[in-house]
Amino acid sequence: MTRSQDRLLAQWRAEPIREGKLRSYARLAKLDVYDYYLSGFVVFTAILATTTQFSVSVFPMLLCFVAGEVCVLASLVAFDDYTGYTDGSDIANYGPDAPLRRKLRKPLVAGTLTPAEALRFAWGAAAAAAILWTAAVLAGPYSPMWTIGLMVVTFVVSIQYSYGVKLSYHGFQELFLAALGWVLVLAPYALATGRLDSFVLVQALIFGLGPLLFGVYSNTNDIEGDRSVGRTTVASTVSPRANALFVGALSLAEFAIGAIGSLTGAAPWWFVLAMAPASVFRAMQFYRGFRAGDIMTARRMGFRVHRLSVLLMVLANLIVLATA
Questions:
Q1: How far apart are CA 36 and CA 53, in angstroms?
Q2: Which Gene3D superfamilies does this one have (predicted)?
Q3: Is 196 helix (H, G, I), strand (E, B) or coil?
Q4: Which residues, other chains included, contact 88 with Cβ-Cβ below 8 Å and sequence gap of 6+?
Q5: Which of 10, 54, 291, 312 is deepest in the core (most CB within 10 A)?
């Protein structure tokens, strides 16, 4: 950190914050941001909707997989916080001059955890994730090699996302945020069924865009902090207009995936209509962020739109099941 960042940190901690370690570790793991974990509901209902035989071994597999993904993401965000603290970007993005950001969201900056504690937690969560995902592969009725390979790559890249190689600092952030969501739907479905399904692929693509479409709004808010440490995102690299076009294209792509799925028969013909409420709210999110200029409110809207999308996909799967 630079001297100016040290001064900002001292100002930030002018009023000491006291909080229990367990709660601080939960904040470090970002357990309140559960949007990736919703993949389990999509996968389970998709299995029911697209298969005629259901094995009870799916339950322990899904339990181990979802518990593993919680640990993968806890490790990822803990490493991200550690790196963001040590390079000073979190001081800029969450410091006293950023009143819309909550102090306790960053335990290292707030002083409720030390860097050493965060690093130990990150490696511990990674170890737990490796054990749980191995157990998921062993417990599942199928174990396609491509699925195992996908899980291994996802695990390794998650650790290197903001630590080690720091892939998110070199232009891979947006792709990874979406790809992670795709894997969290496709991998457990394949472990349960041994195959891919076109309707599940459509849902996986939509699911992965959800977390990305609140991540890009965060990046838009964090442009200066990211630029100061050389973290390459679309928002920190291109002009404001180009960034707005990029986010708009992602929003449109989410709708287009459902529409193309319905038109081609990859999804039921009515699927695009079922997803229409989420498409409307996604347009409202874009308007709030890039027309009204309220990026942080638009970011919060992104969480709600993603959760609505998950609910609609779950309902679509149950409709397919009921009408089969």
A1: 27
A2: UbiA prenyltransferase
A3: coil
A4: 1, 2, 5, 228, 229
A5: 312
